[in-house]
Specification:
Chain lengths: 566, 496
C-alpha cells in the first residue's frame, strides 16, 4: 500500500495514541502466549513418537489448569504494559537537579512499576516451570509419606525471578525509556524480523551478569532464605538436591525474562514510531492538524510524528504539498501555508532561544532587521539646507547648575554591600560543604541535553520546510512562499549560528565524550540537518538570492558557510 | 539486435576526442588536443597520477625489520602477538609453546575456532576470500588490484572530482583552484567506492574494506591533508568489505552493501544508526545505485537476484538473471529504465521499472521481462578487438549517453540512448587509450551544462575527458516561464 495516496481521515490525538498503544499492548500479551506455547512444545520433545508429542503438547495447552495458571501472568503483563504505555507518551520532565532526579525515581508510578516487574519475573518463571513439568515443576514435593518438602531448585529459580525483575527495572527500564525512530520505515513485520536476532542476542548477553550476581547472592544468603521459607510453611528438607544444570536453567529463564521485556519495549517502539499522516486542513474543532501538532509540546510523540510527517510529505507527496500552495476559496488567503510556517518558525525560534539560554549567550535585544532598509543617499543639492527639526532638542540640554547635590555619607551602603557579599559567599561555602549544591544545584548542561533530546524535531522540521520551499519554485503558482522566504532563511541561519556555539561546550566535544555519546552525535546530526536545509534553499534560489531582502550578515553567512564559495 | 559492427571505426592511430552536435571528432593519439574543437573543458583539472606521486602504503611491519629479535619471556611475547596480530595468531603462538598444558589448551581452542569458521563458511562461502580478492572479483573497477585509479566521483554541483588511488588515498581536484586535498588515514584501506554527499559542498563518503569514512573538507582552509577527526567513521563488524555506497538524494541517508553480508544497511551517518534491509538471495551484495529522481534504488547481489527498491516504503521488486550475476547496472530515462549486464552474457539488458503501485507485493510478475538491447560480443574491427563481457557501465545525469568498459578488451564504447518511441541504444564512438593503457573506471560529470562529460580513468593514472557537447542546447527549466507574479524582480525573468 502506498500511504502517500490514501487520504487521511481526521482524528484526535487520543484516537491516535490509543490506537497505537492498544496495538502495542495486545501484541505484547499475544507474544507472551506464543512464547509459552513454543516452550511447552519444545520441552515435551519426543522425536521417536511425534504424534504423542503433538498430543501431549495439545493436552497441556488445552487443560483448564494451564489457563488458570496463565491468567495471573497475562494480567500482570497487561497491567505492566498498560502502565509502561503512559511512560512512552507523556511529556518527560527534565530533572535539572540531582534532588529532582532522586525524587522522580521514587515516584509512586515507578514503585508500582517496579513491583510489577518484580512480580512478573517470579510469575514468569513459576509459570514456565509448572506448565512444562519436569524436575522443578513445583515448589513443594511429596516426600516421606504425607509430609511436604521444599524443592530447593524450584525455590532457587522462582527467587531468581524476583531478583531479575528488580535488576531489569533498575538497570534497563529506568535508564532507557526513550523511543528511537528507525532510519527507514519498513513494514512492521520486516522490522520485527530484522530486529528479532539482535533482541535475542542482547537478552542472552545482558542476562548473564544478573544471573551470576544472583548465584553469588544465593551462595551467601541462600541458606537463611531457605530456612525462613521452610519455617513459615512448615516444610521439610528434600533429599534430592539440584545439580549444576540449575545454573543453566537460571541463565535460560533470566534470558527469557529479558527477552519478554525487551520485546515489549520493542513493540512500543514499533507501533509508536510508525509514521502517521496528519490532515492538513482542520475538519472539526477537536481534530488534529499537522500544523498544530508541530508545536504540541504536551504530547511529544504526537509532535515528533507531525514533524516526521512534514519531512515525508515535503519529500514525496506532491498532492499534499499542493495543499500548502493553495489559497482559501472565499478571501484568497494562504491560510494553510501561513499556519504551517508560523508554527515551524515558532518551533525553530523556541529551540534557538533555549539553546542561546543554555550556552549563556545574552539574548539579542535588537532582532536583526529582516528587511534591509533602503539606503537613500541624499542628493547633493540639499547639502546646504539646515535641518530645522533638530534644533529644538537643544532646549532640553541645559544643565541645572544652581543646586549642587550635597555629598552623601555612603559608608552604610558600602558596609551593606560588603556584608551581603560576605554573607553570600559564606552561604555558598555552606552549600558546598553540606552537599546542598550537589543535590539542588543545576546539573551541568541539563538544558543542552534537553535541547538535544528533542533534536529530531528540528532535523525533520527544518528539512521538511526547506523541501517545501525549494519545491515552491516550480509548484507554487501564486508565489505564496516567497513572502516568508527571508524569515525562514534568517531563522534557520540564527539556529545554525546558535548550534555552532555548542561546539564550545566542553561536555559536547569528542575528546570529552567519545564518538558514541548520544549528545555529541545528536549535535552533529542537528547541525548537519540545518546546514543541508539552508543549502537546499540556497541552491534552489541561488540565482535569486541577491534579490531576497536579507540582512547583510545573514547573506554573508550564507555565502561563506553554506555555499562555501568566495 | 544491434551489435558492435555498427560502430564507426577510427582511422589507424586515431581516437575519438569529443562529440560536438552529434559529430564525433577524431585525432591522432600522439597529438591529441581537445582544445582544437572546444574550450568547454579547458578549466578542467589535468590529472595524471604517476607512480612517483603515490604514497607508499604501510602495512605496519616496516618498523619491525629495523629491530633485532630478542628473547623475552613467553607471557610478554604472547601479549605482544595478541596486540599486534590478534587472538588467533596468539593461539598459534601458544600452541608452539613447549609446556604441554598450554599447547594443548591452545590446540583445543584453535580447533574450536576452526570448526566455527567451517560452520560460518557453509553459511557464507564469500568469507574464504580476503577483502582485496573479493573486491577485485566482484567490484566495478577493472583490474582493481593493479590499477592506479580505483574510483572517480564527480561533485554533484561543482567541477570537482575525487579520485581514489591504489595508495589508499583520495585526491580531490577542482577546476577553480590548484589546491588538492589528500584524504588519507590509517583506517582507510582498499577503497572501493567514493560518493559526494548531496546538499552539501564539503562532505564526501569513502567506502573501504572495513567500513565507511565520511570526510568533511572545509574549503575555506588550506590544509592539504584534512584530519579524519572532523569526519565520521562508520563500521559494523559483519558488514565488510563495503563494495558500494549511495547517498539518498537529500543527503540524509547512506546505503551501503558489502560482499560478505547479504543485509543492506541504511545509515543515519551522524547518529551512527542503521536500519537493515534483509531479503533472501545471495551471500552478499556488490552494487547499489540510486535512480536520478531518487525514488528507486537498485541493489545487485552476488547471486542470481537483483532488486529494485522503492524509496518511500522500502518494498522491493525482485528480479533474477538466468546465470551468473549482475556485473554492472545503471539508471536511464529519468529513473524509469534500468540498464544492466551480467557476468555470463555479452549483452546490455534493459528493464522498464514502473512507478508506484507495482511495489505492492514482493513477488515477481511473470509478464515482465528484461529486454536485450545490444549485443556486445567480441568482434574484430579492422584489427581492433572490441567488446566481450561488460565490466562497468555508466549513464550521464540526463540519461542520454551510456559508456561501457569491457572485461577483456581495452576500448571504451560510448552509446546514445534514444527513448522515443522505444528505448534504444545506438552506437556513438569508440575510445582508445595509448598503448598499454587499459580503462579502469569511468564516471560522468554531474554538472556539465553543455551536454555530458565522460571521464575515463586509465590504468596508468591518467584521466581523460570526453565531452559530448550540444551548442544548440535549449534546456529551459520551465516549459512555460511564469508570468509576472513574483514579489521579487529576478523571479520574474528566467535565468536561462
Amino acid at each position: 500500500m502506498n500511504y502517500n495516496l490514501t487520504v487521511p481521515g481526521s482524528f484526535t490525538y487520543k484516537d491516535l495514541l490509543l490506537r497505537k498503544l492498544s496495538y502495542a499492548v495486545i501484541s505484547s500479551v499475544l507474544t507472551q502466549l506464543f512464547i509459552l506455547f513454543i516452550y511447552v512444545f519444545l520441552s515435551n520433545i519426543d522425536l521417536l513418537h511425534p504424534i504423542q508429542w503433538g498430543f501431549s503438547t495439545l493436552r497441556i495447552l488445552t487443560s483448564f489448569s494451564t489457563w488458570i495458571f496463565m491468567l495471573p501472568f497475562l494480567t500482570i503483563i497487561f497491567a505492566q504494559s498498560l502502565i509502561c504505555a503512559k511512560d512512552y507518551v507523556i511529556k518527560t520532565s527534565y530533572c535539572s537537579t540531582r534532588f529532582q532526579k532522586f525524587l522522580s525515581t521514587f515516584s509512586v508510578h515507578n514503585l508500582i512499576l517496579c513491583l510489577l516487574h518484580v512480580i512478573a519475573g517470579a510469575v514468569l518463571i513459576w509459570l514456565f516451570l509448572s506448565i512444562s513439568g519436569g524436575k522443578y515443576n513445583n515448589l513443594t514435593e511429596n516426600c516421606k509419606g504425607l509430609v511436604y518438602c521444599l524443592n530447593e531448585g524450584a525455590f532457587f529459580l522462582v527467587l531468581s525471578g524476583f531478583w531479575t525483575g528488580f535488576y531489569f527495572f533498575m538497570k534497563v527500564y529506568i535508564a532507557e525509556k526513550n523511543l528511537t525512530f528507525p532510519v527507514i520505515h519498513q513494514r512492521k513485520f520486516l522490522q520485527f524480523k530484522s530486529q528479532l536476532g539482535s533482541i535475542v542476542q542482547d537478552s542472552i548477553t545482558h542476562s548473564f551478569w544478573p544471573s551470576i550476581y544472583f548465584a553469588f547472592l544465593y551462595y551467601l544468603q541462600g541458606d537463611s532464605w531457605v530456612e525462613g521459607f521452610k519455617s513459615i510453611f512448615g516444610l521439610l528438607e528434600y533429599e534430592v538436591k539440584p545439580n549444576v544444570w540449575i545454573y543453566f536453567y537460571l541463565w535460560f529463564f533470566n534470558a527469557l525474562y529479558y527477552f519478554n521485556m525487551n520485546l515489549m519495549r520493542f513493540y512500543f517502539n514499533l507501533f509508536l514510531t510508525e509514521p502517521v499522516q496528519f490532515p492538513l486542513v482542520k475538519d472539526h474543532s477537536d481534530s488534529l492538524t499537522l500544523q498544530e501538532s508541530i508545536i504540541n509540546y504536551e504530547w511529544p510523540i504526537v509532535q515528533n510524528l507531525a514533524c516526521l510527517d512534514l519531512h515525508l510529505l515535503a519529500q514525496w507527496s506532491a498532492i499534499r504539498r499542493q495543499v500548502f500552495f493553495t489559497l482559501s476559496n472565499p478571501g484568497g488567503h494562504p491560510h494553510n501555508w501561513n499556519f504551517l510556517v508560523e508554527n515551524v518558525m515558532k518551533l525553530v525560534k523556541e529551540y534557538t532561544n533555549l539553546l542561546n539560554k543554555t550556552i549563556d549567550v545574552p539574548e539579542q535585544n535588537t532582532k536583526p532587521s529582516i528587511i534591509q532598509a533602503p539606503i537613500i543617499q541624499s542628493p547633493d543639492r540639499f547639502r546646504n539646507l539646515r535641518n530645522m527639526a533638530l534644533y529644538d532638542q537643544d532646549d532640553f540640554n541645559i544643565i541645572e547648575v544652581s543646586q549642587v547635590p550635597a555629598v552623601k555619607f555612603s559608608i552604610s551602603d558600602n558596609l551593606i554591600s560588603k556584608l551581603s557579599a560576605r554573607l553570600s559567599s559564606t552561604i555558598e561555602f555552606v552549600k558546598v560543604i553540606l552537599g546542598i549544591k550537589f543535590l539542588f544545584g543545576e546539573l551541568p548542561q541539563a538544558n543542552v541535553r534537553k535541547c538535544l533530546a528533542n533534536g529530531h524535531l528540528i532535523i525533520w522540521a527544518s528539512q521538511g520546510i526547506a523541501d517545501i520551499v525549494s519545491f515552491s519554485l516550480t509548484e507554487d503558482k501564486f508565489g505564496i512562499v516567497q513572502k516568508d522566504l527571508p524569515v525562514i532563511i534568517s531563522s534557520l541561519v540564527n539556529l545554525k549560528q546558535s548550534l555552532e556555539k555548542l561546539n564550545k561546550v566542553p561536555a559536547l566535544t569528542r575528546k570529552m565524550v567519545g564518538y558514541d555519546d548520544f549528545n555529541y552525535q545528536m549535535k552533529g546530526a542537528v547541525t548537519a540537518a540545518v546546514k543541508r536545509s539552508l543549502f537546499n534553499i540556497c541552491r534552489t534560489f541561488g540565482g535569486y538570492l541577491h534579490d531576497i531582502p536579507l540582512n547583510k550578515e545573514v547573506l554573508q553567512y550564507l555565502r561563506t558557510h553554506i555555499i562555501c564559495k568566495s | 539486435m544491434r551489435n558492435l559492427h555498427d560502430f564507426e571505426i577510427p582511422n589507424e592511430c586515431e581516437t575519438a576526442l569529443c562529440e560536438i552536435n552529434g559529430r564525433v571528432h577524431y585525432m591522432n593519439l600522439e597529438y591529441a588536443n581537445i582544445s582544437t574543437f572546444t574550450n568547454k573543458i579547458e578549466n578542467h583539472p589535468n590529472i595524471h597520477i604517476t607512480r612517483d606521486q603515490l604514497h607508499a602504503t604501510t602495512s605496519g611491519d616496516e618498523g619491525k625489520a629495523l629491530f633485532l629479535p630478542v628473547n623475552v619471556s613467553f607471557l610478554k611475547q604472547l601479549t605482544q602477538v595478541y596486540y599486534e596480530q590478534g587472538p588467533v595468531e596468539a593461539l598459534h603462538y601458544a600452541k608452539s609453546h613447549n609446556r604441554f598444558l598450554i599447547s594443548q589448551v591452545a590446540n583445543i581452542l584453535l580447533n574450536a575456532v576452526k570448526y566455527i569458521q567451517k560452520v560460518r563458511l557453509i553459511l557464507n562461502p564469500n568469507i574464504t576470500c580476503s577483502g582485496p580478492i573479493l573486491i577485485n572479483n566482484l567490484g566495478q573497477t577493472k583490474n582493481w588490484h593493479s590499477s592506479t585509479i580505483r574510483y572517480i566521483s564527480w561533485h554533484p554541483y561543482c567541477t570537482k572530482v575525487a579520485v581514489a588511488t591504489c595508495d589508499d588515498s583520495v585526491r580531490i581536484y577542482s577546476s577553480d583552484s590548484t589546491y588538492c586535498p589528500l584524504l588519507r588515514c590509517k583506517e582507510q584501506r582498499h577503497i572501493t567506492c567514493v560518493a559526494w554527499r548531496p546538499l552539501s559542498n564539503t562532505e564526501i563518503a569513502v567506502a573501504h574494506e572495513n567500513g565507511i569514512i565520511i570526510w568533511n573538507i572545509d574549503p575555506n582552509s588550506l590544509v592539504s591533508r584534512p584530519s579524519v577527526s572532523n569526519g565520521i567513521i562508520l563500521q559494523r563488524l559483519e558488514h565488510r568489505p563495503v563494495m558500494s555506497i549511495a547517498w539518498s538524494p537529500k543527503g540524509d541517508k547512506l546505503v551501503s552493501v558489502s560482499a560478505c553480508d547479504n543485509t543492506i544497511l541504511v545509515w543515519d551517518p551522524e547518529l551512527n544508526r542503521t536500519s537493515s534491509l534483509k531479503r533472501a538471495g545471495g551471500f552478499g551484495n556488490t552494487l547499489v545505485k540510486w535512480s536520478p529522481t531518487g525514488e528507486k534504488l537498485v541493489t545487485c547481489s552476488d547471486g542470481l537476484v537483483f532488486r529494485v527498491w522503492d524509496y518511500r516504503n522500502w518494498e522491493c521488486e525482485r528480479w533474477t538473471v538466468l546465470s551468473g550475476r549482475v556485473q554492472s547496472a545503471c539508471w536511464s530515462n529519468c529513473g524509469t529504465t534500468l540498464l544492466f549486464a551480467t557476468t555470463t552474457e555479452p549483452i546490455i539488458y534493459g528493464v522498464i521499472v514502473k512507478n508506484d503501485l507495482i511495489f505492492a507485493s514482493d513477488t515477481e510478475s511473470s509478464s515482465k521481462q528484461a529486454l536485450p538491447m545490444f549485443d556486445t560480443s567480441k568482434v574484430d574491427l579492422d584489427g581492433i578487438t572490441v567488446g566481450g563481457l561488460i565490466q562497468v557501465m555508466e549513464t550521464d545525469p540526463n540519461g542520454k549517453h551510456l559508456a561501457v568498459i569491457f572485461q577483456e578488451t581495452n576500448t571504451v564504447a560510448v552509446f546514445n540512448i534514444v527513448r522515443q518511441p522505444d528505448l534504444k541504444v545506438i552506437p556513438s564512438a569508440l575510445l582508445m587509450g595509448l598503448s598499454e593503457e587499459k580503462p579502469s573506471i569511468l564516471s560522468f560529470q554531474q554538472n556539465f551544462d553543455a551536454g555530458a562529460c565522460l571521464s575515463i580513468g586509465w590504468s596508468n593514472g591518467r584521466i581523460q575527458y570526453y565531452p559530448i557537447i550540444y551548442t544548440d542546447l535549449s534546456n529551459s527549466l520551465y516549459e512555460n516561464p511564469p508570468v509576472d507574479v513574483s514579489l521579487y524582480k529576478s523571479f520574474n525573468k528566467s535565468l536561462f
